[in-house]
Design brief:
401 residues, alpha/beta, Rossmann fold, nine-stranded mixed β-sheet, two-stranded antiparallel ribbon, 9 helices, 13 strands
């Protein structure tokens, strides 16, 4: 690999074209990739070879597939890719495009001028003026066809979207985040990103009367009709409501740390990975069965409905109560290094972002004890934004730890 442009000890930044830098990286050398590539037709950074200036969506998708083919090579077989992409519209009366917020390119200082944009892009046969291009799904399906497993489409719901001056369609207030993997089985820590249960069900308190509570119970039911419940919270949903966090020195599309955090926590273990082979460590979970419907049954027997008749019983059911009691390697390397793996110290997992930009992925990874590998084409982004932000974040964390 080439010498990194910046090496903080906690991670590295490489300056250059993402495809060319990725080609120099070792096979299966990172545990997780989290990134948001430049969107098609959004802005011109004034750098030769930049992604996003392709003349057609098809050319853009082809380039994306080529880059992420290299990402798949450097990603471990049990690794995950979290890909954030926004969409764009075909501008009315021309071959140019509007960005995902509906504004044209001349409205923002660092965006591509309309006349330059027209000269570099041409409309394709199926796209008409005012059409939604559908870039995210074009890319997702192309990656799936290239060998990736498409495991989830996550909606990034923005409660504070950019206003749009449109009157013939809804205002755009979401983007996509795709979870892709290179194999059917991979590392995913659901317990690390569980959400609070949302449904309160009435149960009997310890004294045997009235409405007690054992907390929030999930609204789902299993195949036997029992109420689904996990003591640590419900499984993460596919709609993530996260406000945008504009960064004044970068373009407005910088994705916020709150969008990256669940990806890091689910995609890499907090304990780390094997020092020899890079395999992730996994939770050691203790389970016990808890009857979560008995209290509801008793309450319904004693509390008639409006007709004065006792309410119908719920079917009985048991649900696991879990607690993490430790961590263990998922490979045999730790056992070969030491007679007992408890004496073997794992190393931090590595998070890759081939489009580093303002280095938000790097900062978020460092805050959660992971190493980072960033690739960025713009030297000014690295010098003026990325490195100062990383230095500030690391200094602040060291002061409070």
């Amino acid at each position: 690999m080439p010498k990194p442009y910046y090496d903080s000890g906690e991670g590295q930044i490489f300056h250059g074209d993402s495809l060319e830098v990725l080609k120099t990286m070792p096979d299966e050398s990172v545990q997780c990739c989290i990134t948001s590539p430049p969107y098609w037709g959004l802005r011109d950074y004034g750098i030769d070879g930049q992604l996003g200036l392709e003349k057609t969506p098809e050319e853009y998708v082809e380039k994306i597939v080529e880059i992420f083919r290299e990402v798949r090579r450097v990603l471990r077989s049990d690794g995950t890719l979290w890909l954030n992409l926004g969409d764009s519209y075909v501008a009315s009366g021309s071959g140019a495009c509007h960005d995902s917020w509906g504004g044209n390119f001349s409205q923002k200082q660092d965006t591509l001028p309309r006349e330059t944009h027209k000269s570099r892009r041409s409309n394709t046969g199926c796209l008409k003026p005012k059409d939604l291009v559908g870039i995210p799904w074009r890319v997702a399906l192309a990656l799936q066809a290239d060998g990736w497993w498409l495991r989830s489409d996550i909606i990034w719901n923005k409660p504070n979207p950019m206003p749009e001056s449109v009157t013939d369609r809804p205002t755009k207030a979401h983007e996509y985040l795709f979870l892709l993997t290179k194999s059917a089985r991979y590392y995913y820590d659901a317990d690390a990103i569980r959400e609070p249960h949302q449904t309160n069900l009435p149960v009997v308190n310890k004294s045997g009367g009235g409405r007690g509570a054992i907390g929030h119970i999930d609204e789902g039911k299993d195949e036997f009709g029992s109420i689904g419940y996990h003591s640590s919270g419900r499984n993460k949903r596919t709609v993530w409501t996260i406000p945008t966090k504009p960064f004044p020195k970068a373009h407005f599309a910088t994705f916020p740390p709150a969008l990256i955090e669940p990806c890091i926590l689910a995609g890499t273990p907090e304990k780390g990975c094997c020092v020899e082979c890079g395999s992730p460590w996994e939770r050691v979970v203790e389970k016990e069965s808890v009857d979560v419907t008995r209290g509801e049954q008793e309450w319904r027997k004693n509390c008639p409905d409006k007709t004065g008749r006792p309410q119908q019983d719920l079917p009985g059911g048991y649900s696991p109560k879990t607690k993490t009691i430790g961590w263990q390697p998922t490979c045999n390397c730790g056992l070969r290094i030491s007679a007992c793996y408890e004496n073997t110290k794992p190393v931090p997992c590595t998070v890759l972002d081939p489009f580093g930009g303002a280095m938000t992925t790097a900062i978020t990874a460092y805050k959660h004890g992971r190493k980072f590998v960033m690739i960025e084409l713009s030297k000014s982004y690295i010098d003026d934004i990325g490195i100062p932000r990383i230095k500030k974040a690391t200094q602040q964390l060291k002061l409070f730890t």
